Amino acid sequence: MVEALETNGLLQILLLTLMAGLAMPVGAALASVESIRPRWLETEVRHSVIAFGGGALLAAVALVLVPEGIHNLSLPALVACFAAGGITFMGLDMWLSANDTPASQLVAMLSDFVPEAMALGATFSASSEGGVLLAGIIALQNLPEGFNSYREVARATHYRARTLVGGFALMALLGPVAGATGYFLLSDAPQIVSGIMLFAAGGILYIIFQDIAPQARLRKHWAPSLGALAGFLLGVVGKVLV
User: Fold this and answer.
1) How far is Cα 194 from Cα 32, in angstroms, rounded to an integer?
2) In this structure, are residues 52 and 144 in contact, taking their beta carbons and an 8 Å threshold?
């Protein structure tokens, strides 16, 4: 009976994290539509989606990764994990820039998705209802992030749209892997989960202010700023529901 319950719980985790991850290729597929007419609307939409994704990432940091991460760590440990994330992502950003490979939004998306899926797996047995809601919130975050990441990668490479969307679909498999890892290995290691979440939070916060926020600004247009508010509000609603 216990084994059946554990198997059922694991299956739910795998399905929920896969569903959340599949929002990335859906966002990428929407972004593969080459242009929206008129031209000003294409520009407005693109910058608004970038801002929305930045707001959603900021909400993930402020409402999920940091609040959950600080529960199980001492002050020196949480400072070390958060600072290490920022410094590590700065080094990665410098390496990508030196190799002319812009992928900051892709890195931010995966840095948000993987630890949240891991946390979902680690805590699912304690609150299956909360896990379902968290999966839905992750999916809503991944949709604009998939859109932005596709546009970023498409500008920097010559891959066909179908190839890129297929690559994003493969990335969705990281969700079940992370969820299963959290379920099997980290359920009894809350300090490790907290450290991973704070590390990711530091890195994401660096990327938001280094790369995403500057791209979102559009002179004499105000919709992108409202997009950032909407993205953060999404996180607030998700936090209240969870």
Assistant:
1) 36
2) yes
- Residue in the block written with tokens 């290729």: 25
SS3 content of the chain, % helix, strand, coil (to 5): 85, 0, 15
Helix (H) or strand (E) holding 94: helix 75-98
Peptide bond into 102 cis (omega under 30): no
Q: What is the pLDDT of residues 192-230, one digit of tens each?
A: 888 888 888 888 888 777 766 666 565 655 566 666 677
**Phi then psi dihedrals of residue 103, to 5 deg:** -150, 30
CB-side neighbour CA atoms (13 Å) of 105: 34
Q: Residue 238 gets which letter from DSSP?
A: H
Amino acid at 159: Y
Structure token digits, residue 197: 């979440």
Does this model's pTM top 0.85? My answer is no
